[in-house]
Amino acid sequence: MDKEKKYEFNKTEEYPKMVVSFGSTLTNKTASWRTFKPVINEDKCIGCGICWKFCPEPAITPTNPPKIIYDYCKGCGICIVECPVNAIDKVDEKR
Amino acid sequence: MNQEKKKLTITIPEEEIMQAGHLACQGCGAAIAMRYALKALGKDIILDFPACCWSVIDGPFPYSATQVPLFHTAFETAAAVASGITNGIQAIGNDHTTVMAWAGDGGTFDIGIQALSGAAERNDNLIYTVYDNEAYMNTGIQRSSATPHGAWTTTTPVKHFKKGEKKDIDSILVAHGIPYLATTSIAYAEDMVKKYKRAKEIRGTKFMHVFAPCPTGWKSDPAMTVKLAKLAVETGVFPLYEVVNGKYKLSIKPKELKPVEEYLKLQGRFKHLQKDDIDYIQKKVIEKWEILLKKVEMFGE
Asked: Which of B11, B27, B28 sits opposite A53 (nearest CB)?
């Protein structure tokens, strides 16, 4: 299943007969909500996984060093506060 | 460069069932709670949401953030619908699927309590989760019976802030004699995953009380969500324990409780409190903590 596929219904007949969800919210890119963005400083990162663990989206990959998926990051800043070695910087979002 | 870097330290299951792109506010505690719960329980699950924040967070038709079967239902019927689903799947011979009702504190403490009480009395095989953000956050921060003393909400404005204690829902459920009850916090991910895995193994009604801070309603910085959840445990405002067949067991026992002021000062909803109000809250927190310690002593393993 393509999780990022968008669905459109133009006629009543095209709607499913039962209320079912067949798409994923991955279609909904929430990046525009951000006012600042977290940036991981890879030299400082110790790979503890705490930022990945506490991300509410989840918009941080479980890799070492972790990568932030900026398509979905809403910029809540939990990762910045929780990082034990202060390896995540708060950068102003510029559009 | 060191190419062979070791893997990221992973303490909770790696698979993500909840997808990104959901509609929770920045720093939502309820979204973190659902992420951990689904990680622990796996994909073989049927969810049931009454009206609560999660009926919005899940996303508009035909998209869903959870990627598992789920049922949206009326406000007061979370436990009744979950009872129906669990008895229905048993009737067709399915004994492996977990059924979980997922309600906010308004849908549990106030509106849904009779359905929950009925399900607990019948001991239907389901997990009932309340994610407790201490007011009706989805409809605009109205007071619920889970709102603590001293808090601002839109129906208890600053001049007339809420007076009276939070309803002790856990004792009410323990009195029903359910096989498993646990209080969990999103700041203790490993503890929460462990408790959900334990709940999955037990037959009967399991009640999970998840403490999920709400930056929007608590007027706190979204970045402080996890810190607040941790402080709530460390100050004794929300102690973590489990009750297995009436036997109390503390999960996290802080050596010394931090002053409750540290927890209160991070939240805008407590900004108006004077010193004697804070002293009163501190006194009540210590009182409840001592009662809990007595219960652990009396009914412990």
From this structure: B11
